[in-house]
Design goal:
Blueprint: E1 7-12, H1 16-26, E2 32-38, H2 41-51, E3 55-58, H3 67-77, E4 82-87, H4 92-101, E5 105-108, H5 113-124, E6 129-130, H6 132-142, H7 157-167, H8 172-179, H9 183-197, H10 202-211
Helix pairs in contact: 2-3, 3-4, 4-10, 6-7, 7-9, 8-9
GO molecular function: DNA binding
Organism: Dethiobacter alkaliphilus AHT 1
Keywords: DNA-binding, Phosphoprotein, Transcription, Transcription regulation
Length: about 220
């Protein structure tokens, strides 16, 4: 639609062919605009400082500065900018480090184009998204959380359900709709979950589960 706010993207990848392909694919969507591209993490960081995109599509293995270090610097200085890891790697060490750095989404490069576009839009709305393969690995373990005594107070079955849906990148409204509870009740459950596992946000909740082997990736 004329005058509609476009989602401004920076594509960081050391393969020029992949950057060019992403630009052409994303250009087909009226609400997306690739405003810059970077061949390495250092350039991604430099361009982010100058251009301030809404979202950075970040590869991991790049010269000069890798995607993990670039993400760490970007999120430290510009927490409002979303970073989507777009990589071939689904190794635990990469997932752990990128979640710790504050990525909003973790996507594998074999993802369907429509799924990537949906993930970009979701991150722009402030949501967290995992590639289906990553999400599947994580959610199976989240469902066993109720059987674990995380501290002195285990999660209830309902809290485990809520945490599972958080891991799938669902918003509070979507969680409420799926579990047939109000958004206020969802928020109360999330507050209790965060208190019990001693975290302050959704990303930290996922990180805690990975770090403590509650979620095995």
């Amino acid at each position: 639609m004329p005058g509609e706010r476009k989602i401004r993207l920076l594509v960081a990848d050391d393969h020029a062919l992949l950057r060019d392909g992403l630009k052409k694919i994303l250009a087909l969507h009226h609400d997306l605009e690739v405003v810059a591209e970077a061949p390495d993490g250092q350039e991604a960081y430099n361009m982010t400082k100058t251009i301030r995109p809404d979202i950075v599509l970040m590869d991991i293995n790049m010269p000069n500065m890798n995607g993990i270090d670039a993400t760490r610097r970007i999120k430290s200085e510009f927490p409002e900018i979303g970073v989507i890891a777009l990589t071939i790697h689904d190794d635990e060490e990469y997932i752990y480090e990128l979640v710790k750095c504050g990525v909003s989404a973790y996507m594998l490069k074999d993802i369907e184009t429509d799924c990537l576009v949906d993930a970009i839009r979701a991150v722009f709305r402030g949501e967290t998204v995992y590639h289906p393969r990553i999400s599947e690995k994580m959610c199976g373990e989240f469902q066993r959380l109720a059987l674990r005594n995380v501290h002195d107070e285990p999660l209830s079955r309902r809290e485990t359900d809520v945490l599972t849906l958080i891991a799938r990148g669902k918003s509070n409204k979507e969680i409420g709709d799926e579990l047939y509870i109000s958004e206020k009740t969802v928020k109360n459950h999330i507050t209790n979950i965060f208190r019990k596992i001693q975290v302050t946000d959704r990303t930290q909740a996922a990180l805690y589960a990975v770090k403590n082997r509650i979620v095995k990736l």
